[in-house]
Amino acid sequence: MLAYTVKRILLVIPTLVGILVLVFGLMQVVPGDPAAILLGEQATAEAIAEVRHELGLDRPLPVQLGDYLWSSLRGDLGDSFFQNEPVTRAIGARLGATIELAVASLVFAIALGLFLGVVAAINQGSIIDVVSMLFAQLGVSMPVFWLGILLTFWFAVELNWLPAIGRGEPIPAAIAAALSGRPGVLLNSLSHLLLPAVALGLNSAAVISRLVRSSMLETLNEDYIRTAYAKGLPPSAVVVSHALRNALLPVISVIGLRFGVLLGGAVLTEAIFGWPGLGQLAVTSISQRDIPLVQGVVLVFALMFTLVNLAVDLLYGVIDPRIRFE
Amino acid sequence: MFKTLGVLAGVAVLGFTLAGPAPSALAQGSENVVRIGTDVDAGTLDPRIMRDTTAYRAINLIYDGLVQLDENLQPVPGLAVSWENPDPKTWIFHLREGVKFHDGTPVTAEDVKFTLDTIRDPALKARFRSLYAPIDTVEAVDKLTVKISLKEPYAPLLSYLDLGIVPKHAVEAGVDISNKPIGSGPYRLVKWDKGSKIVLEANPDFWDGEPTIKNIELVLVADNTARAQALEAGDLDMIQSPLSPQDIKRLQGNDKFANSIQSGIAITYLNFNTARPNLSDPKVRKALAMLIDQDTIVDQIFEGTDQKATSILLSSWAAYDPNIRQPTYDAAGAKALLAEAGWTDSNGDGILDKDGRKLTVELGTHSEDPNRIQTVEYIQNIFNQNGIETKLRISDWPSFSARFQEGDYELILVGWTQLVDPDRVTFGQFRTGGSFNWGGYSNEKVDALLDEGRSSSDPAVRNRVYRAAATIISEEVPYYIISYQGYQVFYDPAIEGYIANPRGMLRSLKNASIN
Amino acid sequence: MRKAYRNPSLVVGGAIVAAIFIIAVFAPWLTGFEPDQMDMANRLAPPGRGHILGTDNFGRDLWTRAAFGSRVSVVIALLSVGVAMVIGTTVGLISGYFGGWVDLIIMRVVDIFLGFPALILALAVVAVLGPGVINVSIALIVVFWTEYARVVRAIVLSEREREYVMAAQAIGASTPRILFHEIFPNTIGPVVVLATLGLGTAIVAESALSFLGFGVPPPTPTWGWTLSFGMRFLRTNVWLSAVPGFAIMITVLGFNLLGDGLRDYLDPKGVSGRERVRDAASEADAKVQGVS
User: Is the residue at A52 inside a domain?
Assistant: First the structure.
């Protein structure tokens, strides 16, 4: 187990370096010159050349790449061309918002997914089962941004129950405020978080519900469950203590991949809900050719994705002793 | 139901029930704050290197320029109480007494000199450096007098001296004014949540008196539709262009919001690459211009948010003359003109040809602006119907602009913004070899006129030369101006005393109040 | 075939997919309009006489645009998934069969693409190549191929120790022969299931790229552009976004039902239980949806 963990962690490094090289390569071949975009339409060719020099873009590519890899190894991701601040600071300012949104969506997705999956499984074949699973299928099929605009339209504009845009205090700070007697702060944060989390999480809820249903059905048909019923245990006890516990295993296994999906989906959701996260930064930086920022954002996304998956894989091994690591 | 399932159900439903009690927190709290939606986050709050509209607007509140441009784009006193122009190459500015930066230090001629010197330094990478390039030297004559000497007469200068003045001592001491701006304007920065909002508060020591509205927040909502919905949901108090025409129409009909819809200082136009064989003949360019259905584009696609342009002269300029007119929509006339230029459908395939070559055009624009995409789609349709084989080429701004700046285009739909002076949209654009003359247009008469307009500060002379240049441009069609871009602002009518400004500047909020 | 009738997912999914394919192939015969036929006097008309689903902002028939749009969606889906499947399967076969250094290196490359945020990767590729049907497909191939490589490799790893492979090696069968004649058939089932689900994902991904301005631009009629553009008209004419939105939903639903149905059909008992759920369901559903 320990050897496996160490091996996995060591393998993360070449992967991240590979990702950096790939993103560097992509940004070299992409048309459009950051210096020209920086200076705008009213820039002369000489001014652009000067700025290219200032940004270090006129150095040979291997030098730029080597320099970049070396400094990122030391935690320096360079300065954003457009944000007038170091990449690490620009990312740091937005990272919390994206993680908060992804975690909230994940919680929503797991809660709704478990609920639908379990309900469908114990009512297998009934109308409840069909409706739940149809709902799940539609949830997977709906483009996130469309869902987002429709949710905003209904819950913010028509009903005026929830804010359409923005973010409240970060959740940890909001909880602290609530504990010190100001629950309004937390409510405000949650009310901002709700719509984007639902929009982003519905898709994952659908996937999880299908997974829970099939795995529940499988378990419910196994001998030990039948034995439990035969022993006269109440159905609720059987479902909870035996079936549900086993059904949770596949859910844990998908959390890692789901987290990656949610991070990716945040790119779209954040634009709709004015959520100040990394997703918006990713899109802006690509459309401005802000090379250091693109590289930094990709690196951070990749790092989060890789680490969460690593953690989930290890966790899975702890929970399910049948899994053996090579 | 089983107990645990009940809990699970509770967890799942919690999300929905929360919706009930949670109030729209922003909507109820109307403390003395105006929340304004913006489409992009500012890149920097240093006036010398600003690039985006959000930065212009925030900087205009935080800093003072020597002058301010009023809603008619006329320079009015700012930091300078008066100025004189003893000869065409010299400008002398007299500064206001007792003005202080937000850090308490007085604003002096040295700060003005520092700002104008550094913006012209290539190392600063200032986007607008070229606007100040004709400046030779800036001299702090005494504490409150600045003398600007020019390399050559440069009439538009005054329009660009609304540039925010930065504190020399702070910048030299290494203060990061990009992120922690120090100006002398009516508002100062409280905090800037990157990617979210810029929070400003009233400057109690402002030379024109502390503003009544205590806080201004510039809130980022990238999506135009989402921003309009946020205003309707009460999460914003004011939104500005760019907005979707569909939303503008609807908001205009909503009496919960006050609005101002006016002609801005930007144009949307078609740029003809006159170096391309098919487009080098002015007759062909004119014929194509006669196939631009300007009425439909402006009325239906832009839904009336823009004004139909008559020429390169903006209606908000003194030089504007409605009698100078570009070609107007006339399909039959276009056909005749093309025939005159030798383009006919000789082989009956529905496409015009000349000497065995088909009349083809590649029409390009960028993918960020749906209105422009619709416009090229519509123009393509008409061109194709009239025997001009038209292909669309649409890509994102960086790729698109990289191509056209190298002259790799035939016909593109683009825009020019911040046109506070006629020089800004003519000198670089139409002068032979001009920096922005990507299509290689050249006409000696136009060259002479533009030189004259740049060097004369006599309004009568300038009006005459720009009218003469516009007449030639309307005839030879290197540009076809589709519209004068409109500027729209919608806001809570409780904000009283705010005067909309065609550049979207918010400075008049300093004299406004909330009822 | 009897089994198929007991599998409603397969039947319903198959029917939806068949219908979409028929619409895509026969689009010109299913309408009296041209997809780019403008009629400004009749713009944004609601569904009714003449235009069964109404008209768009240029007065073009929405049904016609949706029918022709299905061609773009289907082409992008088939092209991206098809090529990704071929590349991924080949790489997976090679990686799994040879093992050792080959496997180690190939899997590191797979890890790089897998760790790269999917939507950003697709966006960057379109930014490099420029928008358009082929380029969007290429972008999706770049994102999609890794999942086939991983699933096929996993199958090869378990198959190559089996007796029949050993037997083939013993009688001196060539490596390509063993790879493609002995091992490959075992991968077909899971790969077909994955691919079917992937087709739906590709369609949603196309719309997401359109929303961000990196899709297939006009004048090509596409569901993605029409949807993201049509959302601007949510309050004036809901049909402009609803028609392409539902077209996307129904098509994706069809592919997903078909994929689920195929999974049950090809593997009714859910072979090897939990691991299968883990591999097929999570891999297929999760990673590729990163772009949607």
Answer: no
E strands, B205-247, in order = 215-220, 238-240
Is A239 in Cβ contact with B399 (below 8 Å)? no
| A156: nearest CB among B40, B229, B436 | B229
- Per the CB < 8 A criterion, the answer to whether B354 and B344 are in contact is yes
- Render each residue's pLDDT in chain C as its tens digit; 292 residues: 445 567 888 999 999 999 999 999 998 999 889 888 898 888 888 898 889 899 998 889 999 999 999 999 999 999 999 999 999 999 999 998 888 899 999 999 998 998 888 888 999 999 999 999 999 999 999 999 998 998 899 888 888 878 888 888 888 888 888 888 888 888 888 898 889 989 999 999 999 999 988 999 888 999 999 999 998 888 888 899 999 999 999 999 999 889 888 887 876 544 434 344 334 444 444 444 444 4
Q: Are residues B477 and B496 in the same domain?
A: no
- Domains: count for chain A: 1
Q: Are B396 and C219 in contact (CB < 8 Å)?
A: no
CB distance A164–B46 less than 8 Å?
Answer: no
Instruction: List residues of chain C with CB under 8 Å from any CB of chain B.
Output: 36, 38, 40, 43, 57-58, 127, 130-131, 213-214, 217-219, 229, 231-236
Q: Which residue of B has its CA nearest to C233?
A: B246
Q: Which of residues 223-242 of B touch C (CB under 8 A)?
A: 224-225
B499 and B475 together in one domain: no
C112 and A22 within 8 Å at the Cβ level: the answer is yes
Q: Which domain holds residue A152?
A: 94-319
Shortest Cα–Cα distance, C267 to chain B (Å): 31
d(CA B306, CA B485): 5
- CA angle (A300 as vertex; A298, A301 as ends), nearest 5: 65
Asked whether C276 and C158 are in contact (CB, 8 A), the reply is: no
Which of B118, B142, B172 is the endpoint of a domain? Answer: B172
B300–chain C Cβ distance below 8 A for any pair: yes
What's the first-to-final CA gap in chain B, in angstroms? 54
- C286·A260 Cβ contact <8 A: yes
Question: Which domain does B402 fall in, by range?
Answer: 264-486
Residues of B in contact with C235 (CB under 8 A): 246, 250
- Its pTM stands at 0.85
Give the whole-angstrom CA distance, residue C126 versus residue C123: 5
CATH classification at residue A113: 1.10.3720.10
Count of structural domains, chain B: 3
Rounded to a whole number, what is the distance in angstroms from the first to the last CA of chain C?
Answer: 34
State the Cα–Cα distance between residues B245 and B371, nearest whole angstrom: 9
CATH label of the domain that carries residue B433: 3.10.105.10
Closest CA to C143 of C76, C219, C49, C80: C80
Instruction: Identify all chain A residues contacting C286, using CB atoms and an 8 Å cutoff.
Output: 207, 254, 257-258, 260-261
Q: Sort out which chain C residues have CB atoms less than 8 A from A258's CB and list them.
A: 286
CB-CB neighbours of C242 under 10 Å:
18
Chunked mean pLDDT (size 10), chain B, 515 residues: 37 34 37 89 90 91 94 89 92 95 95 96 84 93 95 90 95 92 95 89 94 93 86 92 86 91 89 94 95 92 88 90 94 94 90 92 91 94 94 90 90 91 92 90 95 89 95 95 92 92 89 89
| Count: domains in chain C | 1
What is the chain B residue with the closest CA to A92?
Answer: B194
Query: Is residue C8, in this structure, part of any structural domain at all?
Result: no
Nearest CA in chain B to A44: B435
Residue C40 lies in domain = 35-291
